[in-house]
Amino acid sequence: MDNIIEINGKEYTEDELREEVEHFVVVVKKAWDTIVTFFENAIETIWEMAMEYVEYLVNHTPVGYKRYFKMDKLKYYESISIGKSNNWRKAHGLSLKRKLIDN
Fold it and tell me: What is the DSSP letter of 81?
């Protein structure tokens, strides 16, 4: 005689419970595999889209990008130009500092 287990007023044999648990484990594994596959596909799709975008930018550089680089470079030079001579400012493309002469 098998062991009989009562759960919520229903009686189950040990073999029936094992089958139910095995079925539950199979369902959970399928669900987990589906979730993992979804995220793997999502990551792969995002990676491919990012690579296409980078490839597009490499082949089609935006208009005026050199101007932005130049502006950043001039802002950097302006930030470190305190105490520098006019020759240094001129060599780095900055405007010259003029001294006002008092009469």
Answer: -
